[in-house]
Amino acid sequence: MKAEILFDLSGEVALVTGASSGLGNRFARVLAANGATVVVAARRADRLEALVAEIELAGGRALAVACDVTDRASVSAAFDIAETGAGPVTVLVNNAGIAHGGGAIDLDEATWRDVMATNLDAVYFVAREAARRMVAAETPGSVINIASVLGTHLQKGVSAYAVSKAGVIQLTKALALEWARHGIRVNAIAPGWFRTEINDAYLDSEMGDIMKRKNPMRRFGGEADLDGALLLLASGAGAYMTGSLITVDGGHTLEV
């Protein structure tokens, strides 16, 4: 089968959280380029409108929805708007997340709670909202959770982030096991180091340079390096995959 057919997302409605910047922005553009109607969700509505305009200029279909993934009512409202404006969501990319820095002994409770609320709790509640609607509509679907290599391999100074992403990996497996009977596939992608607004300064630092030199490929992830994993899990190409974790890190975890 030709690749363009294998990864075709025509007729799918994909909701991407954290789409206003970074990986989420790229995910939205790639899904739209391969035929999906994309609902881009984030708190920064002005950026979403710019993304929608870019997607439409390229010939795709998109809808912007303001959404705070830590607010259950906001999440429910986002799905309502998505259904009204684009149709029932069949692909969810759970991408929204935050990071932190500093040693565990000095980590304050508020930071810990914020990281867990955004990176783990929200992943569950957004996925549950999507699954409930898929089940009610008797529609199969795909949930793609964005984890991290720090969910399986540690480094100092990111304890809350690492724990939250480890939780996402185990949550992915638990939901996959429970929801397979409904035709809902749940998988995760664990990116290595990719440049985003969150980590730009760190990757430009001396420590960032050390990490790049330790990577077997001697580079950070490029903009297109997650496209294949995303399309595999979103499309029929991954129809027999659920509970899987795809690591995309240039071999980073082989060296740590």
Written description of the protein model:
- There is one protein chain.
- The protein has 256 residues and is α/β, with parallel strands linked by helices.
- It has a single domain (3-191, 226-248), classed as 3-Layer(aba) Sandwich (Rossmann fold).
- Helices cover 46% and strands 15% of the residues.
- The protein contains 10 helices and 7 strands.
- It has helices at 3-6, 22-33, 45-57, 72-85, 109-136, 159-179, 200-203, 206-214, 227-234, 252-255; strands at residues 13-17, 37-42, 61-66, 91-94, 141-146, 184-191, 245-248.
- The protein has a 7-stranded parallel β-sheet with strand order 3-2-1-4-5-6-7, with helices on both faces.
- Strand 2 (37-42), helix 3 (45-57) and strand 3 form a beta-alpha-beta unit.
- Helix 2 packs across helix 9 (227-234), helix 4 (72-85) runs parallel beside helix 5 (109-136) and helix 5 (109-136) runs parallel beside helix 6 (159-179).
- It starts with a helix and ends with a helix.
- The mean pLDDT is 95.
